[in-house]
Every structure is written in C-alpha cells, then in structure tokens.
C-alpha cells in the first residue's frame, strides 16, 4: 500500500512508542502535522521551539522512553539547538522531526532553506555536534536505511538525539508502507553478562577493605532495578552511600547510611568522608566530572582503591585509573552481587555512625567559616524543610538552581530529582517539568532563579493551555546569582551585567491566570503550604533572597 512519507513518519513515531510530541507548526512541516491529526499521538503546542526540545528532554528523562519534538525549517529547527545539546550531553533518547524547503529550490535562496546549498544555512553541519544521527532526507529510495539508523541510535546503550529533516515536497511523495516492516525489532541490545570471577574479584576487594564507600551516579537512576538493589547492597554490608548531583535520589537520603552529594556545591560531608575515612571507593554509574570532583581536587579519590562500574565503556577510567573496571548495567551488577557474593560470605562491615560524622564536619565548617549557607538563607532552608515534610507521596523536582535542593532537600524513595545538568542552560526547568508531567502524575516542581525564569516563563501558558499542574519556585534576588557571586569573589566586586529589574510577578501570574504566592517571612511560607494546590493547580511561588547573599563555595571560574 502506498502512503505519503509524512504518514510514514507518523507511523514510524508510533512504532517507536511515541505518544506525545512537542512542537510548533510551520509551512514546511504541515504535511506531517496533517497526518498527526488522525493519529494517536498527542501534539503539544509550545511558545518557543527551545521549549519543545526541553519538554521532550524532560519527558525522556523521567520516563526512560523516547521524547519527541517537531518544528518547521530554518529558525524553527535552529531554535531547538540548545535543547538538543542538553539531551545529547545527558544521553537522552530524543527524536526530532523538522521540515525543510522543497528540494527543487535548493541553492536558489528559498525561504527558510537550510540545505547548505548556495550559501544557505547548512542544517546538517549545525546539528552534527549535538546529535547521534542527523539526516536531510532528499530522496525516498534510502528511507528504509535512514529510519533503521535512526531507530538503532535511539535504542542503543548510549542513546542521544536523532534529527530527521524532510523537505516539504519529499513529505508528499508516495512510498510503500511495507518500509516499516523491514525495520528491525526496536529493542535494546542484549546486556553484557558479568563473569563470575569478576564478581568474586569485586567481592574480595570489598572483603579486604575496612571502610568502603559508594558513589552512586546517574547510571543508578537509569537502570530500572538499581535503586532497590543499591539499598539492599548498602544496608546488608553497612556501606555508606554518597551520590553525584545527577545521581541524587539513588538512595533515600533520610537513610542512616546516606552521605549526601559529593560535589563542589555541596556541604562537604561526602568529600571529607572520601578523603579522611574511605579506603575503597565503589563508583556506580558516576562520572568524575568537574562538579563531582571538586574541580578534580587532589586527594578526593586517593589513596583509596577504586572499583568503577558503568554501562558506558567510554566512561570507564576516563578521568582516573581504577583498580577494577567493569562494564555493566548498574541494576544487573548490583543484583548479581546481592544474589551471589553477599550470600557467600561477604560479611557486613561495622556500621559507621554517619550522623555523628556529619555533626563533626558541620562543627568544623563553623570553626573554619566554611558553612555553605549563612543566616541570609534561613528562609530558603525553611522552604525546603517544609517541602520535604509536606508530601507523603513522591514529588518531582526539576531544578535549574541546583545548589539549594542539593543541600537542603533530602530526596525520598518515591521522589525524583532532575537537576539541570547537560549543558546547564538557564530556562530549562519550566518546559522540562511540563514535559515530565506528561509522564508522571505526581506533584511537579520547577525550581529556578529569576534570571532563568525570564528565559522561559511564556511556557507557563503551555501549562495553562493543556491544564498541566505545576508549581514554580522562583528565587527573586534581581540578579544572575552565580555571576554576581563570582564577580564578588574573584573580580573585586566589579559587578557588570548581572543585576536587573524584575516585573511585578503577582501581576504577571494574574495575567497567566495562575496562583501567585510571595514568601518574605516564615509566616508567608506556612501560608503557602496551607493554601496552595500542589496537585491540580498552577502556582508561582516567589521567594525573596538577599542580592548580596552568596553561598560559601568557589567554583574557581
């Protein structure tokens, strides 16, 4: 049976399991939009294409499934780049469909043409550094191979964004629907099996250690069973667990064995334990990047022995030499350890008193004036304490601000913490949270500063249009806080282009038709948790922060 390419693309999306696609139509992509009209895929109209890419990324991040977005040619496609780059850095499966000018005008100065011909924008070059696969589809005779390559990248062990750009005339051409039958079964490749001698070697290193510690990273959240197996492993052997920022929530942070986050913007509990106590560090799906390593601080890992486990072979020993490096899915590895080595005589260690250790470090921080948050952050501490206590069920925190929640919110078993890692773009939290809410029907929070808010606030209307419950926590200090902190610490307070005037956020919220709460005192904070509808409402919570309040850490930038 012959169908249009546009219809084939929609059927391909359905075959990938896509049920929601975020985007904005334009003339060069209308054939695909017309076929979406009769499909089972829900379309979501955004306010800016960057928002579409961030929404697709948020959807992919919390679901583990393929996120999708769609735009027209030219600026519609180029506006996606930051969101695609973010997904590329976070290794998120995302398919992007863009339109293109018709092939017969390539090189002739066609409207929004990006073929690279005749001096036009070269979209292939534009996307080449931020995609796993990109193809400008100028003909239909190789369409089977293109869709095959796209599908393989999306379900690979290390996925990332795929961009298919289709000229509007090609979208209208007829092809055989049997093309889809020629595609391989879209499922991940079989996982690597860990050899028993490797498991025993790992167990022997743990057996010989006096004070092992685990650093759990994003890999422990990507694997479906890793969180439960990690808790079982840690509890049985009495091994304390720290997390990377991206791995925060891999273990319930209220646990007696939870050390909190390791990283330059954290309180230092985990860093001191690694440097002063540990003789074996077990890295589980954690990269040792700039933030986690305290800008590769000497001594954070040394002189401990190191076991590193990661599903991505490119991450193994990328920064340091490991005594034992294992390529494996983290859930499979931990399940194997719990099933084989633990029952076969791997005895528990003496249970460390992590609470006492944290108190000692806190006291040292007071003495040495290295407490990360001073008195000016008391209201921020109150907010996160109430947020942690208020919900018995799990919540989702999509966090651009990072530093507050990293230190002040203990992620529970049913919570999901989504920090803005990737390329760390401002303007990510609100659209990413909207995308995530299409997957998880939990109370959803977007956390960001007033600078980032103004980059993405119009996507609030996307939440309004589709009745997406969302609570935005915005810190109002009328400045780009990180820039001002660095200019204060390293540039003799020569403040330039960091301070700004804010709109009246109460009036702005009123214009959106959403709820507004302003927190300037503890009483205001209590009122928010008494009145706000976190389950069905759309709320903007504005928390006032002193412009001259700086977290006490240095990123050395």
TrEMBL record:
Boundaries of each Thiamine pyrophosphate enzyme TPP-binding domain copy? 404-542
| Gene Ontology annotations for the cellular component aspect, listed alphabetically | acetolactate synthase complex
Residue intervals of the Thiamine pyrophosphate enzyme N-terminal TPP-binding domain: 4-113
Q: Name one GO biological process term.
A: isoleucine biosynthetic process
Q: Where is the Thiamine pyrophosphate enzyme central domain?
A: 199-336
Q: Which GO terms describe its molecular function?
A: acetolactate synthase activity; flavin adenine dinucleotide binding; magnesium ion binding; thiamine pyrophosphate binding
The UniProt similarity line reads: Belongs to the TPP enzyme family.
**What name appears for this protein in its UniProt entry?**
Thiamine pyrophosphate-binding protein
Q: Which organism is it from?
A: Thiothrix subterranea
Q: What does the record give as the organism's lineage?
A: Bacteria, Pseudomonadati, Pseudomonadota, Gammaproteobacteria, Thiotrichales
